[in-house]
UniProtKB/TrEMBL annotation:
Skewed-composition ranges (Pro residues): 11-20
Residue intervals of the Major facilitator superfamily (MFS) profile domain: 33-534
One Gene Ontology term from the biological process aspect of the record: response to antibiotic
Stated name of the protein: MFS transporter
Bilayer topology annotation: Multi-pass membrane protein
UniProt entry tagged with the keyword DNA-binding: no
GO cellular component, one term: plasma membrane
Lineage: Bacteria, Bacillati, Actinomycetota, Actinomycetes, Kitasatosporales
Intracellular or extracellular location(s): Cell membrane
Comp. bias (Low complexity): 1-10
């Protein structure tokens, strides 16, 4: 295998660290690289959006409970959280192009398998596998950008990369809504296949299989095992907390195991000859704060927005297409806001744009917490617009201070940590806020249950669980199997609908309030961040 390096020799001056790496032909061209990775991340972003729109249809078709639907999301997040950092290391070791293309092919193939699922268990299993391939895509995409763009243009590239994600997010609700409403929920996964093929074609042509001079040729297998098991215990414990209870021995056991394994992993990293995650990375204050900010952002966004589709379809009675249109302002604004955020961070540094984004996001969450049973388009548009403008600089800025404050030879690992922080935050958000909503429903619904529908206190435990599960998804429990086979008249049906809607709103409003507080806490942390050095101390090679 031939290599072309830009590393300095004794007879040549050192390379300009702000210059892009050498390349052959069009391979490795910065803007073509951005185009190729944009297709890959758009596929992942589109998948995330359409799954949210499809959740109610999946629930009806596969008889999925709220816990099942959380697993459709959390199984994917769990696989990502476990695999992202090792995937970043694989990109540093074997070349980011190779791992990226494997991820693109696998993601498209598993999307097809998901569409063929005949049960919710099968769907969840393929979503987990899809998460593994998604883990190969995401950190290598950022690694490719980091290795292709000069430092003074990297923020702009990350902003455009974020705009590509937002474009897919903007298209997802509309396309997904139309497909769910007029075709089937399975069809929303088919659209990943042509995008995956396009990603492979452009990627093979445009990407250079870049590694970094100084990147280790060895893999810390013990570190991979320790970190993967620790991440699994952490995310699994959080996910199961809603079912088992936060104070249960089951949940506490997994949390304790995660802490112990993370401590052992950290100790091992100080002794390993070629550590998976050098602990010196975390001595950089901005790098560590960036990870926490990414977790906070994902916690609020994934956790709170998990329920917005249930609110719009269940409480407001909108169709999937109408739900997509209602959410479109947020997605379109994110599409515009991401490159603007990148430019602002280049001019001002990350601190001010991130603080502004956190403030806007906290305000948006507070406004969403005030939604009632019948919110108009205007009532949701303002908070969605604020949230779109708020999330963009947080995403770009946190990515900048994580990836930019790591040395170039650890760009894949840093990108994996950035993505892992997002997935852990998302899993925490859906699990914690899901548990908050479920607990609120369980505490409030018995007092609001209409007497005409039966004595709630004397209902079998399983029946109450079914009713509360339906209410926690925003849908009134009007099916005969949930009502013990009873056929109710109009007034009783309307009484159940009102009790269900107001109870769900109490839970959702509490979830948005917690999300708003989380964003507000992030403002304090953002006061202490600084911009990264981008390319200090390493140069890229093409393999």
């Amino acid at each position: 295998m031939s290599q072309t390096s830009t590393a300095a020799t004794p007879d040549a001056p050192p390379p300009d660290p702000s210059a892009p790496p050498a390349r052959k032909g069009m391979q490795g061209h910065p803007w073509l690289t951005l185009l190729a990775v944009a297709f890959g991340v758009m596929m992942v972003a589109l998948d995330g959006t359409v799954v949210g729109i499809a959740n109610p249809a999946i629930s009806k078709d596969l008889d999925a409970s709220l816990a099942d639907l959380q697993w459709v999301t959390n199984g994917y997040l769990l696989a990502l959280a476990v695999c992202l950092i090792p995937a970043g290391k694989l990109g540093d070791r074997y070349g980011h192009k190779t791992i990226f293309l494997i991820g693109a092919a696998g993601f498209a193939a598993t999307s097809l398998l998901i569409a063929f699922s005949q049960s919710v268990s099968m769907l969840i299993a393929f979503r987990v596998l899809q998460g593994v391939f998604g883990a190969l895509l995401q950190p290598t995409a950022l690694g490719l950008l980091r290795n292709s763009f000069p430092g003074n243009k990297l923020n702009m590239a990350i902003g455009i990369w974020g705009a590509a994600i937002s474009t897919a997010t903007a298209a997802g609700p509309i396309v997904g809504g139309l497909l769910v409403e007029h075709v089937s929920w399975q069809s929303v996964f088919y659209i990943n296949v042509p995008i995956g093929v396009l990603t492979l074609v452009v990627g093979i042509w445009a990407l250079a299989n870049s590694r970094v001079a100084g990147a280790s040729n060895r893999i810390d297998y013990l570190g991979v095992v320790l970190l993967s098991v620790a991440m699994f215990c952490l995310v699994w414990g959080v996910i199961k907390s809603g079912e088992k209870g936060w104070g249960s021995a089951y949940t506490l056991g997994f949390m304790a195991a995660a802490v112990i394994l993370l401590v052992v992993f950290a100790l091992w990293q100080t002794r390993a000859a070629e550590p998976l995650m050098p602990m010196g990375m975390f001595r950089n204050r901005s790098f560590s704060i960036g990870i926490v900010l990414m977790i906070f952002m994902a916690f609020a966004m994934f956790g709170a927005m998990f329920f917005i589709t249930f609110y719009l379809q269940g409480v407001n009675g909108l169709s999937p297409t109408e739900t997509g249109v209602r959410m479109l302002p947020m997605s379109v604004v994110m599409m515009i806001g991401s490159p603007i955020g990148g430019l602002a961070i280049t001019k001002l540094g990350p601190r001010i744009p991130i603080i502004a984004g956190l403030a806007l996001s906290a305000t948006a969450m507070a406004l969403l917490a005030r939604l009632g049973e019948d919110a108009s388009f205007g009532a949701t548009m303002l908070p969605f617009v604020l949230l779109g403008f708020g999330l963009s600089p947080i995403m770009v800025g946190a990515t900048d201070i994580i990836v930019g404050n790591a040395s170039l030879e650890l760009s894949g690992v840093a990108s994996g940590i950035q993505q892992a922080a997002m997935q852990v935050g998302g899993a925490l958000g859906t699990a914690v806020l899901g548990a908050v909503v479920a607990a609120k429903v369980s505490s409030v619904l018995p007092d609001r249950w209409p007497a005409a529908a039966g004595d709630y206190a004397t209902m079998p435990h399983g029946q109450r669980e079914g009713i509360e599960g339906s209410v926690a998804q925003g849908f009134p429990p009007l099916r005969p199997d949930l009502l013990g086979g009873k056929q109710l008249d109009g007034p009783a049906t309307e009484a159940i609908r009102h009790a269900s809607d107001t109870t769900f709103l109490d839970g959702m409003q509490l979830a948005f309030t917690i999300a708003a507080i989380t964003m507000a806490v992030g403002i304090v942390l953002a006061l202490f961040v600084r911009q990264g050095e981008k390319r200090e101390g390493a140069v890229a090679v093409h393999v």
